[in-house]
From TrEMBL:
SUPFAM superfamilies: Periplasmic binding protein-like II (SSF53850). Belongs to the UPF0065 (bug) family. This is Tripartite tricarboxylate transporter substrate binding protein. Gene3D superfamilies: Bordetella uptake gene, domain 1, Periplasmic binding protein-like II. Pfam families: TctC.
């Protein structure tokens, strides 16, 4: 009996030693599989506008190059509504694992100034890559009888009630630049808000509103046909789509110069190594002459390949700039 009792603890100790020695062999591979390389599956790119807009088309143009660089498909998920806020809010709440990205633009930083949105543009996102910038061009109907910005301003000053301008989004690129023009030129311009650029252009060509600032790509056809006349374009240099049209800077209004950026963001706390790898993929696309050429045809100035901080710096500067500007211009929801 005594001999039987002595065998049990010894057998137990040997069993435990065997089990413990086997544990590292079991646990180490499990940890490796849990971490895994990124990306190991398809990536969702949330585009917070309807298909066809510049914020949608710019990243779509890059997708073949991005897929080649990352070795995984990038699937576009359009979530339009509330001037980018619906899609942005969705990404802000998504897991920070690199599998949900956001195509963003200037409304991400303007919206929080005038209304409640389901995200913080700085705290809820990490910048991944700046893709490019877009300008707007001031256009008028031929029936207005002006051919230059100076002639338009002279006409506006003669009007006792002021002239009307078409606006498609409160605190958007069109709204901001038009109000800056009115302030700088000392003229009165009354905004008429439309649900999209299409009905706004219809009324502009019919003469029901007198001026509109729009994407060069949107109005290039109407300008070529003579349905609209261009007066000036924002940006440091002339648009490649209309090289004969002067910039507002050339026309004597350097402050009418807000361009919109297009960039890629990820949820806050996305691991830095994933951000760096995604940034490299987008930079590779921006280094492709074919991609740059396609963007140029849209009126988009492709960004130079850059680190994520380039986009983050732009957003941080805008968050500081907009409140004072909006108060000065009287812009509110």
């Amino acid at each position: 009996m005594i001999g039987d009792k002595m065998k049990t603890p010894l057998g137990t100790r040997r069993s435990c030693l065997k089990l413990l020695s086997a544990l590292p062999l079991v646990s180490t591979p499990l940890i490796g599989r849990t971490q895994g390389p990124w990306p190991s599956k398809a990536i969702t790119l949330v585009v917070p506008v309807s298909p066809g807009g510049v914020v949608d088309l710019v990243p779509r143009t890059m997708l073949p190059s991005i897929t080649r660089s990352l070795g995984q498909a990038v699937v576009v998920d359009n979530k339009p509504g509330a001037d980018l806020a619906i899609g942005a809010g969705h990404v802000a709440r998504s897991a920070p694992d690199g599998y949900t990205l956001l195509a963003g633009s200037i409304p991400l930083t303007t919206n929080p100034v005038i209304k409640k949105v389901p995200y913080d543009p700085i705290a809820d996102f990490v910048a991944v890559s700046l893709l490019g910038t877009t300008s707007v061009v001031a256009v008028v109907p031929p029936s207005l009888g002006v051919s230059t910005l100076q002639e338009f301003i002279a006409l506006a000053k003669k009007s006792t009630e002021g002239l009307n301008y078409a606006n498609s989004a409160t605190a958007g690129l069109v709204h901001l630049n038009t109000e800056l023009l009115a302030e700088a030129a000392g003229i009165k311009l009354q905004g008429v808000l439309y649900k999209g650029q299409s009905p706004a252009l219809t009324d502009l060509m019919a003469g029901r509103v007198q001026i509109m600032l729009a994407s060069p790509a949107t109005v290039a056809g109407q300008i070529s046909s003579g349905s609209l006349r261009p007066l000036a374009v924002t940006g440091k240099s002339r648009s490649s789509l209309m090289p004969d049209v002067p910039t507002f800077i050339e026309a004597g209004f350097p402050n009418v110069n807000i361009d919109s950026w297009i960039g890629i963001l990820a949820p806050a706390k996305t691991p830095q190594d994933i951000v760096v790898k995604a940034n490299a993929a987008f930079n590779a696309a921006l280094s492709d002459p074919a991609v740059v050429g396609q963007l140029d045809k849209m009126g988009v100035v492709a960004a130079q390949p850059s680190a994520p901080m380039a986009l983050r710096s732009i957003m941080q500067a805008e968050v500081q700039r907009w409140p004072k500007m909006f108060e000065k211009l009287g812009i509110r929801a």
